[in-house]
Every structure is written in C-alpha cells, then in structure tokens.
Design goal:
The chain is built from 7 helices and 13 strands. The protein is an alpha+beta fold. The structure holds FE2/S2 (inorganic) cluster. GO terms for molecular function: iron-sulfur cluster binding.
Length: 347
C-alpha cells in the first residue's frame, strides 16, 4: 500500500468525528466520503524513522501495521491477523468496556480507514470523540494508531474485528445491542519490543590459526561483533543467520565419542558452545544433558539449547565469547562425556 495522503486520512477522521451517534451513523458518513480507499499493506514497509508514540500521524501508523490472512492449522481455523510490520515492535492487547445505553448508544470511537484489499482491511483508531461514551474511559485507554481486535456485549459472543474492512467493522459495532450493556472491546497497541543486544568476542585470528593447525582443522571463526535478538530467539540459529561462524573446530561430538561434526542443533556435538561473560540470566535454563556436557564449564552454554527468555522492558545485554576454546586464556579443563571420557583434544 503506497503511503496514504495525510489530507485524506485527516478528512476521514473529521467526518467520523462528527458521527458521534450510533456506529450506523458513522457508516453512513463513511459512504459519503469521496476519498478513494487505499490498499492494505501486505508486506513489511521500510523502517520509518519516527519513534513510536502519540506524535506519529495516521500515515505513520498505517505503515506500522501489516494485515494477513493466516491459514488454518491444527489449532485454529483460518483467520485475519493485524500485527506490527517490523520485528522491533510488538503488539499488546488492551481490554475495556465502553459504557452505553439505549438513550446514549454512540461509542464515540474515531475510526479511520487506512486501506482495503482482497477482503482484508486496516482500520485505525484515532482516539475518542470529546463528550462521548468512550471519552468517559480513563485517559489513554484508546490512542491514535490502536486497532480493534474484537467486540461483544456482556455475556455475548465475541465478534472478531481484526483485519476487517471498514464497512464490516462498522457493521459489527453497529450490531452490538446498547440495551445489553456496555461494549466490551479488545484492542491491539504497538510498543517497542524489548531487545537483547548480544556482544560477541572472537579469539584473535593468530591464536585461532595456531589452534586450528594443531587440531588438523582449518578456518578462522569470525562474524559481526553485535547482533540484536528478541524473546523466543534460539541463540545458535539466530547467530548463524546473522553470519556468525559459530562452529568450533576444536570441539568433538558428544554422542559418537569420536570425531568431530556439527550435530545440527541436537545438543550432541558441543561445536556451538559459547562462554557467557555477562547477562546469561536472560537465557532459558540448562537441561540435564547440557549440564552434563558442560560439566566443569559453568559459564558455557550450548547455543543450540539456549533460547532468549523473557526480557525486561528496556531490553538487556548479553556478552559472549564465540568458540571459547580458541581464546588464549582458555582454562584447559577437559570436557568429558557422561562416562568421564575426555572430549577436549588440546592443542
Ligand atoms: S549444534 Fe551440536 S551441540 Fe549445539
């Protein structure tokens, strides 16, 4: 979806701000709007420079959401999904009940159509109308750029609004009976996703080369000095995907007992071991096999078995040494398999 003109969005917002009655009135006003509809963004746009926040205009918000039709799987039927367009942001759910009655049925939501394509729609909230039912909620309950996820009346069925085009959205809101009580809404709002900055140390190239020569292997490991990860990321997969040469030529397989080789993330070869210098508390806990394999190396982790767990708001930093056996001050204790046989070959 090409960037929508600000003037058009503002015009729609003004029209809808006037529609403070029932949602049906809003639909009528929207139909009178002459502005052509934009198309829904189907893939991630380039990263906008502006920070998340109330200062962002509707054009900016329209680029920050992505609408998709998710195929059915074993756990859920096909559904529409609205999610942040970049990994640096995440959506949080917000629940609220807007009080209303037959005498005062209007919700007071300012809805703006940001795009429609192939039955998918992006409808943004632009705050609440002054003096409306929604305005009686706590300040900040509804903000510009929020999107509607679902609506229902108390005790009634949940009606999905996520990814619906504008008319369908207004249709669902209009169908909520004001006599049944308040409108129970769920919204999505974006926030900056807590990030983990992983700072990487590599052995000096000449030390690596000497170690590699002594072990009969070749190659010097290298890669970026810093990578950014988010909760749920597997350390090994994420580092390999970012070009970190993780596999240690000095490591031997744990399962076979002889020979070297990358086990492919099965937790059997130890080629992915890293030494965690600081910040390891953000990683998932070790399992029994990993603890056995790294007995005597309390700061090491198998990257293939380490997942970025919950991150504090504001993010965290993790300092690791890649291929720790290659460092000059490697403390030389021998890695053993579960039967006590040394795995470390020395150099
Ligand atoms: S890749 Fe083999 S133990 Fe991690």
């Amino acid at each position: 979806m090409a960037a929508m003109a600000s003037a058009k969005l503002r015009a729609l917002a003004c029209l809808l701000a006037a529609a403070l009655g029932a949602a049906g009135a809003a639909r009528h006003v929207a139909r009178r709007g002459a502005a052509p509809r934009a198309r829904v963004r189907m893939s991630a746009p380039p990263s906008p420079a502006a920070a998340l926040g109330a200062e962002l205009d509707l054009d900016g918000w329209a680029t920050r959401w992505r609408v998709a039709r998710l195929a059915a799987d074993a756990f859920s039927p096909e559904r529409l999904d609205v999610s942040p367009s970049e990994a640096a942001w995440e959506a949080v759910s917000i629940d609220m009940t807007i009080p209303r009655s037959p005498d005062r049925p209007g919700l007071g939501l300012l809805l703006v159509e940001a795009g429609e394509q192939d039955g998918l729609g992006l409808v943004l909230l632009d705050g609440v109308a002054p003096g409306s039912n929604a305005a009686s909620l706590a300040p900040g309950s509804i903000l510009r750029g929020d999107v509607l996820v679902s609506a229902r009346v108390p005790g009634g069925p949940v009606r999905s609004l996520e990814g619906l085009p504008y008319d369908a959205t207004v249709g669902v809101l209009s169908s909520l009976d004001p006599a049944a009580g308040g409108a129970v809404l769920r919204l999505k709002r974006q926030r900056v996703r807590p990030a983990l900055t992983v700072r990487l140390e590599f052995p000096e190239a000449d030390v690596q080369a000497a170690a590699a020569a002594a072990s009969g292997s070749d190659g010097v490991v290298a890669g970026p000095r810093e990578v950014t990860l988010y909760a749920g990321a597997n350390l090994r997969r994420s580092m390999l995907a970012r070009g970190v040469q993780l596999n240690d030529p000095l490591a031997r397989r744990f399962d076979a007992g002889i020979g070297t080789g990358d086990c492919g993330g099965e937790g059997c070869c130890c080629t992915c071991a890293v030494e965690v210098l600081r910040g390891g508390e953000v990683l998932s806990a070790q399992g029994t096999q990993e603890r056995q394999m790294l007995a005597g190396f309390p700061r090491w982790r198998l990257a293939c078995k380490a997942v970025v767990d919950k991150l504090p708001e504001g993010g965290a930093t993790l300092d690791v040494r890649v291929t720790p056996r290659g460092f000059e001050n490697f403390y030389g204790k021998e890695e053993c398999d579960v039967n006590g046989k040394p795995l470390y070959r020395g150099r």
